Amino acid sequence: MKISQGFFKTFKEKPKEAENISTELLLRGNFIDKEASGIYSILPLGWRVIQKINKIIREEMDAVNGQEFQMPALQPKELWLETDRWDHMDPPLFKLKDRHDKEFTIGPTHEEVIVDLVRDRVSSFRDLPFMLYQIQTKFRNEQRSTGGLLRVREFLMKDAYSFHADVKEFEEYYQKVIEAYHRIYKRCGLGAKLVEAHSGSIGGKKSNEFMVLTKEGEDTIYLCGACDWAANIEVVKNIDKCPACGGEIKKSKAIEVGHIFMLGDLYSKKMGVTFTDKSGNTKPIIMGCYGIGIGRLMATIVEVLNDEKGIIWPKSVAPYQVHLISLDQDETAAKLYQELIDAGIETLYDDRQESAGVKFADADLIGIPKRITVSPKTIADKSCEIKERNKENLEMVKLEKVVDHIKK
Amino acid sequence: MKISQGFFKTFKEKPKEAENISTELLLRGNFIDKEASGIYSILPLGWRVIQKINKIIREEMDAVNGQEFQMPALQPKELWLETDRWDHMDPPLFKLKDRHDKEFTIGPTHEEVIVDLVRDRVSSFRDLPFMLYQIQTKFRNEQRSTGGLLRVREFLMKDAYSFHADVKEFEEYYQKVIEAYHRIYKRCGLGAKLVEAHSGSIGGKKSNEFMVLTKEGEDTIYLCGACDWAANIEVVKNIDKCPACGGEIKKSKAIEVGHIFMLGDLYSKKMGVTFTDKSGNTKPIIMGCYGIGIGRLMATIVEVLNDEKGIIWPKSVAPYQVHLISLDQDETAAKLYQELIDAGIETLYDDRQESAGVKFADADLIGIPKRITVSPKTIADKSCEIKERNKENLEMVKLEKVVDHIKK
Q1: Pick the CATH number of A320-407 from 3.30.2350.10, 3.40.50.800, 3.40.190.80, 3.40.50.1000
Q2: Is A282 exposed, middle or buried (0-12, 13-18, 19+ CB in 10 A)?
């Protein structure tokens, strides 16, 4: 993409609504725009990151036999009365009426809709197990929206729902999803800690969150220094020894990047979803659900991977692989841009009539992994200058070797 | 995907809510599920079709310099007061209040939001032109939802918005989008007619619809038999000669699969969006917008491409390329399935314990382009049977040649 032909504007000043570093950098770098409190547009640069994250999530969900689909945001009141959640969600539901005075919510989650779908189509153990997932917009009527993309009122979420004939088979599947989640975070450049969590308005006998340890996070967790045990402080308050091994306990602020739930037969019983097992007995279906907030995940990557100049995207989710800068060498740069594009290398080309200072500052702010500069100095040597965003050294590379150099 | 491991249930009976053939076949074939009047889930088979359509649309929008992004569904009342549309949309807006009694709509369209975004970021002719598009959920508070996916209350839409410094440049761009739209429909297996249209609640000086001629459609158009002229009857009522060439006029029922608008400076003036031109003069930005309803496009493909047995998907948007059926030959079929998957061929594998009749009927209903059957008869000849959905003849192909045969 040539910047001159696109929709592009960066900001030098810290925006007043930026309560944390990820919001500041994503707003200044043209990744997001605030429409109203807790309501954002994702601009083209940000959307490219989201699409990369979505691709990783889809691959890992497909690898645990997930099938992607899409449920509607509008959900009729009747379904929420069946589970007694119409007036008992926290935060409360957004509610609206259609022109015939029929009541709906725009859903913060989809247990009611999917269970309604499944009860019409599953009758036998032969129909189980299966897992469905969607990447879809959710709405939450928060009291106060804070922290940019970390607590919003409308957001893209990957929510998955699995259905099983028995508890043992479900628990094995739950473990597989945990492993898939760890792979997702790792591929996005993050390490996440599995912790015991409070199930909130979703319910179920047990739930787990995935926490990324950062300087600033909404959540506080207890971590054992000796074993793997960890828990959100909402679950276990005021302890000084690890309940698993007796080891020392540490406290840490953290960002939740995923929440998965052992729903068991909670919704199946409330909404009457049964199947016939091998012996001909009627049983409630066992169910799990698995969420990842996509915008929040993008923000968390920025929260962890940045320096005083801007964002440092990992290659896997960077909006482009190469940020090409022309310093008064538009003809050479345009030729190189075309070569990079032809070689399938995602390139952002800064062809604006701006100073070197402005262009370098924007490149550092936006955080694309590799910066290529074509200037009178490099041209004299039939070369360009390549710099990696997370390293200090500059490398001179002959123009005819650039594509190979980037691809290696 | 092995059917035994997925979420799969077809229906023999015509559902009572099926008012047209596309709704009947998409419901019976497990592509969609009705949640409430005019509100549908898109099931895994349907979602694969939608994703194929989305990929085609993205490629064609990117080819006319579009940048994908995402705007929120929740839109504050204040923005809609600026354009005087809060109480004047047809159908009327869905309206809701947040917990602080602030009013929002869940948007049927996004002119207000994008113009608000653009006015903060565009100031000079150097910032123009550009085009942004999104594939996003829209909400319409229809009086009556009819015709399955053809008139719904919640739907996925590709909406694009372009911004220009002058009318001539805009009109050239508008023509490029028309060509991109024709490529989209052609790639989806459809031919669409460009017609003059009524601009409705969107407004602007001129708009065009793309119409697919079908037996059953919501719209009626006038077509000239002698020249290219065509118009929705909403625009020109009661004519008997072509206004362009004087030729004979025909009348036809049709389905609208796209609507594009020459908005000009309508929204720029209402919302105060100006730029400074080369001479230093302040001018309103010239704007166009371009919509395609994605679910409606999927339904239209089915409306056109079907026979008495079911859907006939074109290869470009088929949920899978191959429908593999095992008739008591699970070992050979499983091996062939793995070979097809390894070769990158999207394959739906019917590994259920069902009769040949059930499996063949489902294959015809679902409409995947190629059916491969492995049976005792074919195995005796180390072969399988390949049938194309839109042809009658069967072809025997040696098992070791199947991948090459499918790929050619």
Answers
A1: 3.40.50.800
A2: exposed
